[in-house]
Amino acid sequence: MDSSNHWYRHAHIWSAYCGLGFDQPPRINGVIQHGWTFVHGFGAGHAPPHGFAKYVWSDVNRRRGQAVGWRDYVVTGAPFLYLEQMTPPDPQAPEPEGTIWYPFHGTVDYEAVSGDHDRLIDEIHAVEDGPVTMCLYYVEYAIDAIREKYEDAGFRVITHGERGVKWTGGNPDFLPGQLRELRRHKRVASNRLSTAIMYGASLGLQPAVYGDPMDLVGVKAGFNGSQLLEFTFPQLHGTDIDAELARQVADVELGRDAMLEPQELALVLGWEQEWRESNKESA
Questions:
Q1: Tens digit of each residue's pLDDT (9 = 90 or more) over 74-83
Q2: Taking CA atoms, which of 69, 85, 226, 273 is between 20 and 30 Å from 182?
Q3: Is the CA virtual torsion 223, 241, 138, 58 positive or negative?
Q4: Phi/psi class of residue 54: alpha, beta or left (left: φ > 0; alpha: ψ in -120 to 50)?
Q5: Domain extent at residue 47
Q6: What's residue 223's pLDDT?
Q7: How far apart are CA 106 and CA 245, in angstroms?
Q8: Is residue 183 part of a domain?
């Protein structure tokens, strides 16, 4: 199993959905798309090996991948959507309020992000009129100077935690915690169109994409993707985006129409034997 299948506990969520338990998901002979991308489902430097299944969220990703010559695609819908389906909203939860804000980040320690945090704080204060939760990536959250800037600005500052490395570590509550946090807010915002924006929009939050875009240190000018994102998804940029339109786009990008029933998902993941044994035990 590719270790990225354990990032954010995607394999675990699917295992629970298939009735096989959360803690020890069976092996998957393929690679799960682990974040939203505007290309073929996999980030730079993360090319799944030839001959193994590429489990992508949407048919959009499949078409983009096949356009560059990739094959072996299986369209499943995003694990986040399965988690949402398995986790109904808490009827006792308070009414959603305020904005959860996700600043652009790198992926690991060596992909540092450069930007003007003070300017971003000023822009957020100018746009948001309710309480703001600033959700930092764990790398930035651990840097006192960055975290304290947002705390001093009056924001509630959190992190969803680490995604894990080589099948170990990581926060098992990463995606469940993100789902809970999104549901407690009315708006979801970022300075880049991102996975979090797609998740929030799919839940009906009003998205916003604005502010200092920030860059990965060392990325060549014109290669950071921000201009291409604005060109490809102009309707998803700004401070007051149409929530229903954004939800429609997010559902396409996350593959809501591609979601599978538990037995179907178990079959495409290669879990037929585990499925049969589990259902034999529960019969």
A1: 999 999 999 9
A2: 226
A3: negative
A4: beta
A5: 3-78+255-282
A6: 44
A7: 28
A8: yes
Pick the range with the lowest mean pLDDT from 73-82, 161-170, 242-251, 257-266.
161-170
Task: For residues 117 and 250, state if they share a domain.
Answer: yes
Structure tokens at 120: 């971003």
Q: In this structure, are 128 and 51 located in the same domain?
A: no
Would 8 be classed as within a structural domain? yes
Question: Would residue 278 count as lying in a domain?
Answer: yes
230: part of which helix (H) or strand (E)?
Answer: helix 226-232
Parallel, antiparallel, or unpaired for β 206-209 and 99-102?
A: unpaired
Give pLDDT tens digits for 51-71.
Answer: 889 999 999 999 999 998 899
* 110 Cβ neighbours under 8 A, 6+ residues apart: none
The angle subtended at Cα 255 by Cα 176 and Cα 251, nearest 5°, is 80
Statement to judge: residues 15 and 140 lie in one domain: no
Query: Which CATH number fits the domain that encloses residue 133?
Result: 3.40.50
φ, ψ (nearest 5 deg) of residue 40: -95, 10
Tens-place pLDDT, residues 123-176: 999 999 999 999 999 988 999 999 999 999 999 999 999 877 766 777 889 999
* Together in a domain, 136 and 208: yes
For residues 176 and 277, state if they share a domain. no
CB 73 within 8 A of CB 30: no
One domain, residues 268 and 182: no
Q: How many CB atoms lie within 10 A of CB 164?
A: 18
For residues 272 and 232, state if they share a domain: no
pLDDT for the residue numbered 282: 61
- The whole-angstrom separation of Cα 191 and Cα 152 is 20
Determine the Cα–Cα distance for residues 235 and 247; give it in Å rounded to an integer.
Answer: 11
